[in-house]
């Protein structure tokens, strides 16, 4: 096979729905040979975060990608993007004109992997449990529009919403709405450790080393009934310490597929048409964003003028060109390009990077310069280029003479608890959308129960604009309201968007399905992988 980089088209708003294949397929590689997938995601169970795989707690892309293989949801994103389609449900839909009553009918003979029947009461238990636990990850906020959950018989579930929410079907496709068995999950307590029991396409066997899961063995669930066509019998996912170690593994043939996160240098090397042709790379549409978050009550950044001055100094073009090259592009809003509601609000307000304008902002606000602060970043979650990115941010800010910036890197398992406890004034984060809609880039950051635990609360956004945007069943019509929100964010700067990125998958040339193994929201779809014929 001659090496090539396959480029799939970017998402243009929400694409037309594509129906998923009918479920319960017995197809597979038939070889009994597990497909091995590498990742740099790390999975730890610590004192601060003892339940990494509980659907009521998990809220990072790595943990969600484990849950999506094992815990079934009523709805699911179809293979070709678009609106969600029924998964554990046979049918779902709003039953009123106001988008406040959503009813689902479960598939017949739906079972958990252990053979227990899945009932409407199990669905109600799962949703009620996530809302009641209110885990500090903030994931429960995705279900914030749920008022009550009603069941009719064993197969019908009705969600009564406290306000109109046209995005609710998307939220039912996320792992927080995963259906769990009350026999395995306590109502009032998170489930510690790495065990998962569900009705999804695979069962999980976790291989651990101390408090870390090093390998996840996904075996096809014989009791699975759903919308997915599972094309293999077993997939193993191996967690590597860094991209170099993962790259060595695919070169040696220890793994078949390499997912997030590769280094920019690896991607460039693999994309070279003259390189070894035993490994191919696929470029996929991506909706990942990176940004700086602010504790808006912290002394160093509590004055809006300081945050505005940072927005005026940061040179996104230089940042992207010097660190990520063609693998990313500057981002001037929370909602990225290609998603309905995108607006270049930060560029409209600040234009190109300009130190003189930043100095004027600080002078008018009587801010003594240089402003001293530390930018925090995680060393092992968003890829090996993160350190270089923050070194360049530090250089840009300090070169202005207006800031005295230090940077500090921390492993993810310590970074997240510190951020949630408010120990950082400024910190870098990435975001993979919960679903491909502007609401998924707005509410998680700005609503009352935002996952950042941000003290920034804007009543116009929370009480008026977010509810207004959710009332629009036609998501194109929500664009005006979403733009208003982004303009407020550009003025107040509770977060500072930096860039949006593409995503890549590399695989050995006897593996097929890599073009669909990640969707635009970075959802890992291991069921799409199978073995083909190299040559």
UniProtKB/TrEMBL annotation:
List the InterPro entries: Peptide/Ni-bd, SBP_5, SBP_5_dom
Outline the extent of the Solute-binding protein family domain.
Answer: 84-450
**For this UniProt entry, what is the primary localization, expressed as one broad class?**
other
Q: Look up the domain of life of the source.
A: Bacteria
The protein's matches in Pfam families, at most eight in alphabetical order, are given as:
SBP_bac_5
Keywords of this protein's UniProt record, alphabetized?
Answer: Signal, Transport
Subcellular location per the Swiss-Prot or TrEMBL entry: Cell envelope
Task: List the signal peptide residues.
Answer: 1-20
Per the record, the similarity remark reads: Belongs to the bacterial solute-binding protein 5 family.
The entry's protein name is: ABC transporter substrate-binding protein
Native organism: Streptomyces galilaeus
């Amino acid at each position: 096979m001659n090496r090539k980089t396959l480029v799939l088209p970017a998402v243009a708003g929400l694409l037309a729905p594509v129906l998923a294949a009918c479920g319960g397929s017995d197809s597979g590689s038939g070889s009994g040979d597990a497909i091995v997938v590498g990742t740099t995601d790390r999975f730890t169970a610590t004192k601060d975060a003892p339940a990494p795989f509980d659907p009521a707690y998990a809220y990072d892309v790595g943990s969600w990608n484990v849950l999506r293989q094992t815990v079934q949801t009523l709805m699911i994103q179809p293979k070709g993007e678009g609106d969600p389609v029924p998964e554990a449900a046979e049918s779902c839909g709003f039953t009123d004109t106001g988008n406040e009553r959503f009813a689902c009918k479960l598939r017949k003979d739906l079972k958990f992997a252990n053979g227990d029947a899945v009932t409407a009461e199990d669905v109600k238990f799962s949703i009620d449990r996530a809302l009641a636990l209110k885990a500090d990850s903030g994931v429960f906020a995705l279900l914030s529009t749920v008022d009550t959950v009603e069941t009719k018989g064993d197969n019908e579930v009705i969600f009564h919403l406290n306000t109109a929410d046209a995005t609710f079907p998307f939220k039912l496709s996320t792992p927080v709405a995963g259906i769990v068995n009350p026999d395995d999950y306590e109502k009032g307590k998170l489930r510690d450790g790495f065990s998962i029991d569900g009705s999804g396409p695979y069962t999980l066997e976790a291989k651990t080393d101390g408090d870390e899961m090093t390998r996840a063995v996904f075996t096809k669930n014989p009791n699975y009934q759903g919308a997915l066509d599972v094309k293999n019998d077993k997939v193993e996912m191996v967690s590597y310490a860094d991209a170099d170690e993962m790259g060595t593994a695919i070169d040696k043939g220890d793994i078949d597929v390499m997912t997030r996160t590769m280094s920019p240098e690896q991607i460039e090397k693999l994309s070279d048409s003259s390189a070894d042709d035993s490994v191919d790379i696929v470029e996929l549409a991506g909706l990942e964003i990176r940004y700086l978050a602010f504790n808006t009550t912290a002394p160093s950044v509590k004055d809006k003028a300081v945050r505005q001055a940072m927005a005026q100094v940061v040179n996104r073009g230089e940042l992207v060109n010097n660190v990520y090259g063609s693998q990313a592009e500057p981002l001037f809003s929370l909602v990225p390009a290609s998603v309905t509601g995108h607006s270049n609000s930060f560029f409209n307000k600040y234009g190109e990077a300009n130190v003189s304008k930043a100095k004027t902002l600080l002078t008018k606000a009587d801010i003594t310069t240089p402003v001293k602060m530390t930018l925090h970043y995680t060393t092992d979650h968003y890829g090996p280029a993160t350190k270089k990115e923050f070194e360049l941010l530090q250089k840009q800010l300090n070169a202005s003479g207006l800031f005295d910036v230090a940077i500090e890197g921390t492993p993810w398992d310590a970074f997240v608890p510190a951020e949630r406890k408010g120990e950082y004034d400024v910190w870098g984060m990435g975001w993979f959308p919960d679903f491909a809609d502007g609401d998924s880039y707005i509410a998680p950051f700005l609503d009352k129960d935002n996952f950042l635990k941000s003290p920034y609360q804007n009543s116009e956004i929370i009480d008026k604009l977010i509810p207004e945007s959710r009332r629009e069943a036609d998501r194109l019509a929500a664009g005006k309201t979403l733009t208003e929100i982004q303009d407020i964010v550009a003025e107040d700067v509770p977060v500072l968007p930096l860039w949006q990125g593409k995503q890549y998958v590399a695989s050995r040339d006897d593996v097929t399905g890599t073009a669909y193994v990640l969707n635009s929201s970075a959802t890992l779809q291991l069921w799409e992988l199978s073995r083909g014929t190299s040559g």
